[in-house]
Design goal:
With 224 residues, this protein is α+β, with helices and mostly antiparallel strands. The protein has two domains: 142 residues, Jelly Rolls; 73 residues, Glutaredoxin (3-Layer(aba) Sandwich), CATH 3.40.30. Helices cover 38% and strands 26% of the residues. The strands form three sheets. Strands 1-8-3-6 form a four-stranded antiparallel β-sheet. Helix 1 runs antiparallel to helix 5 and helix 4 packs across helix 5.
Length: 224
């Protein structure tokens, strides 16, 4: 089995865990914790880089999660009735890696604040396992996704400082890509953002920030 076939099998096997539908009982337990909100197409719920966000449950309509990379948007997932939009960063209070907005003409959303979400996950077993398992699996799927960029480290080939950033992000299980400055993609990025070897390594965040020669402390702050 090729790597691509293994990936496809993994995504099929984990689909129901990563994207479960909430049942009537679970919705009734979560309803008192949040606020209903009617939103229009294009309204943004979350932006990449934001922290300490709550959970968005779709009661009607559709949401989409997407990654913006170098001016181009890439779809990550869609959420419809009884689905919820969220990432494991919501459990940790760290920055989220993608953005989310309304994809239908109108949508009704139940928004549960971060503090209420964490309390529910600690005190309501009927919803905690479903949500926690889903958020953890979504992060696992993102880390395996060959198309998802997340954090990007632009560094010279075999440069020690670039690999230090790569190792740091890897150990903290933060989805990212190490891009060689000398590669075709690296050359395109350096031209687009006017970067030279004097700037390396460069950390590019999902929110669009570009940190030149960042310390590990700065990387940790950006990653949440």
């Amino acid at each position: 089995m090729t790597d691509e076939e293994q990936d496809e099998q993994f995504y099929r096997d984990t689909e129901s865990i990563a994207f479960p539908k909430l049942n009537d009982h679970q919705l009734s337990l979560l309803e008192p914790l949040g606020e209903r909100r009617v939103m229009k197409r294009g309204d943004v719920l979350f932006k990449a880089g934001q922290r300490d966000l709550g959970l968005a449950i779709v009661l009607r309509g559709e949401l989409e999660a997407f990654e913006t990379r170098d001016g181009t948007e890439y779809n990550l997932a869609n959420a419809r009735e009884r689905d919820f939009m969220g990432d494991v960063s919501m459990l940790q209070g760290t920055s989220i890696l993608g953005s989310s907005r309304v994809a239908s003409d109108e949508a009704e959303i139940l928004l549960i604040p971060a503090a209420e979400l964490r309390r529910a996950l600690a005190e309501i077993p009927a919803v905690s396992k479903t949500i926690v398992d889903a958020l953890i699996m979504r992060r696992r799927r993102l880390r395996r996704d060959r198309e998802f960029a997340g954090m990007r480290v632009l560094a010279s080939r075999n440069a020690r400082d670039g690999h230090q950033l790569d190792d740091f992000l890897d150990k903290n299980r933060i989805p990212h890509r190490l891009i060689e400055f000398e590669s075709e993609q690296g050359e395109a990025l350096s031209k687009r953002f006017h970067l030279t070897t004097r700037d390396l390594p460069v950390l590019m965040t999902p929110a669009g920030a570009r940190l030149r020669k960042p310390s590990l402390r700065e990387v940790a702050r950006e990653a949440g």
